[in-house]
Amino acid sequence: MASITFFLAGLSGFFAVALGAFGAHGLKGRLSADMVAVYETAVQYHFYHTFALLAVALLMQLGVQHGALRAATWLFGIGIVLFSGSLYALSISGIKVLGAITPVGGLCFLAAWICLMVAALRGVQ
Description:
about 120 residues; mainly alpha; about 80% helix
């Protein structure tokens, strides 16, 4: 599972950099100030949770095997897609209903962080 988590962290990091650069250069002057802020929020949370995925991968690589860490991997990944993905799409398309998906991604992030706490409380070995 560590190799899958490392792969997901690498893939996510790649897209965080690519989408961040696209936003800074390709969308310059094309979005309203409000939509630029939405896009920047997507990039920020994308990066934060990519680093969280990387931390989970490192724990697994060090031999920490816990179901809660496996769950955190998938929840962080799904959260990135739903939270940041919906904000990217909203900012570029202007379709406001996409904002309804964002909280689901946020709940995935929260659940993933809870999984890390559960792993710690259960004495991750």
